[in-house]
Amino acid sequence: ELGDALIAENEVHAGGPPKDGIPALMTPEFLAVDQASYLRDSDRILGLERNGIAKAYPIRILVWHEIVNDHFDGLATVISYCPLCGTGMVFDARIKGNALTFGVSGLLYNSDMLLYDHQTESLWSQILMQAVSGEHKGNKLALLPLRHTTWGDWRAKNPQTLVLSSNTGYSRDYDRTPYMGYEQSPALYF
Fold this sequence. Notes:
By secondary structure, the chain is mainly beta. It has helices at 59-65, 151-157; strands at residues 12-14, 30-32, 44-50, 53-58, 67-72, 75-82, 87-92, 94-95, 98-99, 102-109, 112-117, 123-125, 130-133, 142-144, 147-150, 162-164. It contains two helices and 16 strands. It has a five-stranded antiparallel sheet with strand order 1-10-11-12-13, with no helix packed on it. The two termini are 19 Å apart.
C-alpha cells in the first residue's frame, strides 16, 4: 500500500507480473572474458567499474530479471534495468550504513520500475532514486557511474572485466526478449 507516498497513488500502475514475478538476482555468478562465449560484440551491456573491479551486465539477462544485487569488494551494489523505458541505473545499496537488497515490486511509476527493499518493503523509484513509501520514504540512493555500451567496446576497454553469467538459476531463454515488439508499438501502455 502506498498510503502517504511521495508520488500520486493514481500514477502507480501494475506492470503485469506480481511482486517478485520477475525474479531479481540475489547471488549472481560471473565469468571471465574468455568464458563469455554466449555474448556477441554487438550485444548491449551495462558496464560498471567500482573499487577497481569491472563488471558487465548483459541487457539480454537484465530484461528477464531487472535487478541484480551484487557486491564490489564488499560494497553492496544494486544494478537496475527497466525494460519498458530502457533505463539502466546502478546504485550504492547502502542506506545509513546498512546494506539493502532489492526485489521487483511489479509496480510502475511513469512507465518506470518501482523496486522494493527486502528489509523494510519500502518502495523505491528507480528514476527518482529514492524511496517513495515505507520506512525509508525520502531516503535517496547514491547513483554510481555506469556505461551503456556494447560487449565488444566494454571488453576492449576492460580486458579483465567479469561478465554476468547466464547461469542464473532460472530457466529463461536469454537469446530472446520477453518484450518482443514493445518498442515498435505505437500504443502508450502506461
